[in-house]
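User: My collaborator sent over this chain with a note saying "see what the structure looks like." That's all I know about it. Can you take a look?
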Amino acid sequence: MIINAPNLKFFRNIFRKNLFLILFLLLLTACSKKEKLQAQSIKTASGWGYTILYDNKIVIRQTIIPVISDTKSFNSEGDALKVADLVIKKLKHNTSPSVTKNDLILLKIKL
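Assistant: Without extra context I'll predict from the sequence alone. Here is the result:
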């Protein structure tokens, strides 16, 4: 089979001209999908905690700071959400969602 060079150039030019449009549409559809894992802060009696939702169902509810010996809540909503985001990242990478004391130090969580 002989491929006619002008036809090959024609299709290559069409592809190059529409490559940006194709990539833009792929990016748009990828960004429009809803994330299944979500973090929400919750107010506790002594501070803040967080929940991790999967398809709007609670899968993790953490009302105290993990790993430390005291049973106290996070001092701020921001601290709770930092840890919740870390847990979501770990879940997305198929690793254990457990939080270590080193993780808390790296996130600058007030203990």
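A starting point for your reply to your collaborator: Helices lie at 5-32, 77-92, 101-106.
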